[in-house]
Amino acid sequence: MRLQLQTWCEVEQYLEQSTGILIPIGSTEQHGPNGLIGTDALTAEKVAQTIGEEQGVLVAPTINVGMAQHHMAFAGSMTLRPSTLLAVIGDTVSSLVTHGFTHMMFINGHGGNVATLDSAYSEIYAKYSFASQECPVNCKTVNWYTGRRIGELSRKLYGSAEGHHATPSEVAFTYFLHPDHNKNVTLSPEQAPYGTIRDAANYREQFPDGRIGSNPGLATAEDGEKVWRAAVDDVYEKYESFLSEA
Ligand code: NI
User: Fold this and answer.
1) pLDDT tens column, 173-190
2) pTM score, two decimals?
3) How many A from CA of 35 to the centre of ligand 1?
4) Digit-coded pLDDT (tens) for 14-37
5) 66, 25 in Cβ contact below 8 A?
6) Cα 11 to ligand 1 centre (Å)
7) Rounded Cα–Cα distance for residues 129 and 152 (Å)
8) For residue 126, how far is its CA from the centre of ligand 1 (angstroms)?
9) What are the structural domains, with CATH classification, of the chain?
10) DSSP string, 135-150
């Protein structure tokens, strides 16, 4: 149930039976030589929209550009500064609070967004704390790629080749979603190096083709379907228990 495809009357009706909403958030950034630039947004959106369709949960429009300054030395990457993303998340939550939504679950596809999401929630809660008012909203981040089922599946399929960035799991997921955009590229070395992240120039120096620790050459659309299903089941389980929180 996409918010964009409802009328205001339908949203008003929805709010009578549920005040929960899913908000996909991703990134628009390089994912190595064979991964799509939209990977983190496309995957988070698909997980959210599948839950929306299967469970009748409302899904807000996707926040497609995230905090990805460290990817900016690769063509096509886009970023919001943490301060900009903080404002985007804050205004998104405030808009939905105005209408009576109380439980907002951000389905996240990008590790670089996590710190800013947490800070944005604290900014929102602080407004109410300073005013000695009870905050009407509970916000939660769920990273689709860190659930129990996804962990088991990626260990089984890829072992240590899963790595940290441009992982075979996420690349497989997008290959399942977009079979016309599967890329056939030879990766060298097969498994990328590990390291820590700082600025964009330093990132490119350490990770010349953009990957960190991964071998996404193992990604197939067939496995991507399993990744999608595991992610949906992991995230929905968390949404159900989130709704029961005050
Ligand atoms: Ni990613």
Assistant:
1) 999 999 999 999 999 999
2) 0.97
3) 9
4) 999 999 999 999 999 999 999 999
5) yes
6) 32
7) 40
8) 31
9) 3-235 (3.40.50.10310)
10) ---EEEEEEGGGSHHH
